[in-house]
Design a protein that fits this description.
Elements (H helix, E strand, L loop, with lengths): L1 H20 L4 H8 L3 H39 L1
Length: 76
């Protein structure tokens, strides 16, 4: 169980920098290339903003599940 948690945490740790620098699609990349620096930063910020809530929801569900599993094992 601990090994799985470590693998998930390492995966999350290495995926965060990718999320912060990645564009959503090729259309977004071409649009950002045609904009000035300030507008391109705004577009990137919007992508991060839209990705934050689904990731936060999944993280919360994972945390609740993990705590429930931990309490179940303590009772055994």
């Amino acid at each position: 169980m601990k090994r799985r948690i470590v693998i998930v945490l390492i995966s999350i740790f290495f995926s965060v920098p990718v999320l912060l620098k990645a564009q959503g699609c090729s259309v977004c990349t071409k649009t950002a290339a045609g904009l000035d620096g300030k507008a391109a930063k705004g577009l990137n910020g919007g992508v991060i903003y839209l990705a934050f809530f689904p990731l936060a929801i999944l993280g919360t569900i994972g945390l609740v599940w993990w705590r429930g599993q931990r309490q179940t094992k303590k009772e055994e």
